[in-house]
Amino acid sequence: MDALPSGVYFEKGYQVVATDASLRLNRSSAKEPAIGAGDMWHDAAMPHRSEWVGGQHSSTRAELVAVVMALLGTPRADDLAILIDSAAAIQRLRWFRSHDFRPVEHKVKDYDIIHDILPQLNSSGDPNHPDELFL
Protein backbone atom coordinates (compact mmCIF):
# COMPACT_ATOMS: atom_id res chain seq x y z
CA MET A 1 0.00 0.00 0.00
CA ASP A 2 2.94 2.34 0.52
CA ALA A 3 3.51 2.49 -3.27
CA LEU A 4 -0.01 3.80 -3.91
CA PRO A 5 -0.65 7.57 -4.15
CA SER A 6 -2.01 7.41 -0.62
CA GLY A 7 1.39 6.12 0.56
CA VAL A 8 2.48 9.68 1.38
CA TYR A 9 0.10 9.61 4.36
CA PHE A 10 1.74 6.49 5.77
CA GLU A 11 5.15 8.16 5.59
CA LYS A 12 3.82 11.14 7.56
CA GLY A 13 2.39 8.91 10.29
CA TYR A 14 -1.27 9.59 9.55
CA GLN A 15 -4.04 7.23 10.54
CA VAL A 16 -5.40 6.10 7.17
CA VAL A 17 -8.94 4.92 6.54
CA ALA A 18 -10.63 4.14 3.24
CA THR A 19 -14.36 4.66 2.92
CA ASP A 20 -16.77 3.19 0.41
CA ALA A 21 -20.47 2.80 -0.16
CA SER A 22 -22.93 1.03 -2.38
CA LEU A 23 -26.42 1.58 -3.74
CA ARG A 24 -28.44 -1.39 -5.00
CA LEU A 25 -31.61 -0.31 -6.78
CA ASN A 26 -33.10 -3.79 -7.40
CA ARG A 27 -34.85 -2.66 -10.57
CA SER A 28 -35.62 -6.19 -11.68
CA SER A 29 -37.43 -7.18 -8.50
CA ALA A 30 -39.98 -5.89 -6.04
CA LYS A 31 -37.32 -5.52 -3.34
CA GLU A 32 -36.70 -2.09 -1.84
CA PRO A 33 -33.46 -0.36 -2.82
CA ALA A 34 -30.64 -0.82 -0.33
CA ILE A 35 -27.68 1.39 0.53
CA GLY A 36 -24.71 0.65 2.73
CA ALA A 37 -21.49 2.28 3.87
CA GLY A 38 -18.26 1.05 5.32
CA ASP A 39 -14.76 1.94 6.36
CA MET A 40 -11.52 -0.01 6.41
CA TRP A 41 -8.50 1.08 8.41
CA HIS A 42 -4.89 0.53 7.43
CA ASP A 43 -4.18 -0.12 11.11
CA ALA A 44 -5.27 -3.69 11.78
CA ALA A 45 -6.08 -2.80 15.39
CA MET A 46 -8.93 -0.52 14.27
CA PRO A 47 -12.20 -2.35 13.58
CA HIS A 48 -13.59 -2.30 10.05
CA ARG A 49 -17.28 -1.49 9.91
CA SER A 50 -20.19 -1.66 7.52
CA GLU A 51 -23.72 -0.39 8.09
CA TRP A 52 -27.05 -0.08 6.34
CA VAL A 53 -27.88 3.53 5.51
CA GLY A 54 -31.34 5.03 5.86
CA GLY A 55 -32.91 7.97 4.13
CA GLN A 56 -33.02 8.92 0.48
CA HIS A 57 -31.56 6.29 -1.84
CA SER A 58 -28.36 7.91 -3.06
CA SER A 59 -24.83 6.59 -3.46
CA THR A 60 -23.45 10.01 -2.46
CA ARG A 61 -25.45 9.92 0.77
CA ALA A 62 -23.94 6.52 1.56
CA GLU A 63 -20.42 7.79 0.79
CA LEU A 64 -20.93 10.70 3.19
CA VAL A 65 -22.17 8.32 5.89
CA ALA A 66 -18.96 6.33 5.43
CA VAL A 67 -16.98 9.51 6.13
CA VAL A 68 -18.97 10.10 9.33
CA MET A 69 -18.31 6.50 10.35
CA ALA A 70 -14.58 7.05 9.87
CA LEU A 71 -14.64 10.28 11.90
CA LEU A 72 -16.56 8.63 14.73
CA GLY A 73 -14.31 5.58 14.65
CA THR A 74 -11.04 7.34 15.31
CA PRO A 75 -9.76 8.30 18.75
CA ARG A 76 -8.08 11.43 17.37
CA ALA A 77 -8.77 13.34 14.16
CA ASP A 78 -5.71 15.61 14.03
CA ASP A 79 -3.64 13.17 11.97
CA LEU A 80 -6.39 11.38 10.05
CA ALA A 81 -6.38 10.78 6.29
CA ILE A 82 -9.71 9.62 4.88
CA LEU A 83 -9.53 8.14 1.39
CA ILE A 84 -12.82 8.93 -0.36
CA ASP A 85 -13.46 7.50 -3.83
CA SER A 86 -16.57 9.55 -4.56
CA ALA A 87 -16.03 12.77 -6.52
CA ALA A 88 -19.63 13.80 -5.75
CA ALA A 89 -19.11 13.46 -1.99
CA ILE A 90 -15.84 15.39 -2.13
CA GLN A 91 -17.43 18.15 -4.19
CA ARG A 92 -20.35 18.45 -1.80
CA LEU A 93 -17.94 18.89 1.11
CA ARG A 94 -15.86 21.43 -0.83
CA TRP A 95 -18.88 23.71 -1.21
CA PHE A 96 -18.80 24.29 2.52
CA ARG A 97 -15.06 24.93 2.61
CA SER A 98 -15.27 28.05 0.45
CA HIS A 99 -14.83 31.42 2.16
CA ASP A 100 -16.65 33.45 -0.49
CA PHE A 101 -19.62 31.16 -1.20
CA ARG A 102 -21.69 29.09 1.16
CA PRO A 103 -24.70 27.17 -0.15
CA VAL A 104 -28.04 27.56 1.55
CA GLU A 105 -28.17 24.60 3.91
CA HIS A 106 -31.80 23.62 3.31
CA LYS A 107 -31.13 23.36 -0.44
CA VAL A 108 -28.18 20.97 -0.11
CA LYS A 109 -28.89 17.27 -0.50
CA ASP A 110 -27.79 15.20 2.47
CA TYR A 111 -27.10 18.23 4.65
CA ASP A 112 -28.22 16.20 7.66
CA ILE A 113 -25.06 14.10 7.18
CA ILE A 114 -22.77 16.90 5.98
CA HIS A 115 -23.65 18.79 9.16
CA ASP A 116 -21.86 16.05 11.15
CA ILE A 117 -18.72 16.36 9.00
CA LEU A 118 -18.36 20.16 8.81
CA PRO A 119 -16.98 20.74 12.33
CA GLN A 120 -14.06 18.44 11.45
CA LEU A 121 -13.03 20.25 8.24
CA ASN A 122 -9.86 22.26 8.43
CA SER A 123 -10.43 25.30 6.23
CA SER A 124 -6.75 26.17 5.87
CA GLY A 125 -5.94 23.48 3.33
CA ASP A 126 -2.58 22.89 1.66
CA PRO A 127 -1.92 24.75 -1.60
CA ASN A 128 0.44 21.95 -2.67
CA HIS A 129 -2.47 19.46 -2.59
CA PRO A 130 -5.60 21.26 -3.85
CA ASP A 131 -7.54 17.99 -4.23
CA GLU A 132 -7.38 17.25 -0.52
CA LEU A 133 -9.92 18.13 2.10
CA PHE A 134 -8.16 18.45 5.40
CA LEU A 135 -9.84 16.98 8.43
What does it look like?
With 135 residues, the chain is an alpha+beta fold. The protein has one domain: Nucleotidyltransferase, domain 5, CATH 3.30.420. Helix content is 27%, strand content 20%. A four-stranded mixed β-sheet has the order 3-2-1-4. A hairpin with a 7-residue loop joins strand 2 (34-41) and strand 3. The model is unreliable at 127-131 (pLDDT under 50).
Question: What are its keywords?
Answer:
single chain; four-stranded mixed sheet; 135 residues; Nucleotidyltransferase, domain 5; alpha+beta; 4 strands; 27% helix
Q: Give me the number of helical elements.
A: 4
Relevant CATH superfamily = Ribonuclease H-like superfamily/Ribonuclease H
**Portion in strands:** 15-25%
Number of structurally distinct domains: 1
Distance between the termini: 21 Å
Give the averaged pLDDT, no decimals: 79
Annotated CATH architecture:
2-Layer Sandwich
Structural class: alpha+beta
Oligomer: single chain
Order of helices and strands: HEEEHEHH
**What fraction, in percent, of the residue positions are helical?**
25-40%
Radius of gyration equals 16 Å
* CATH fold assignment: Nucleotidyltransferase, domain 5
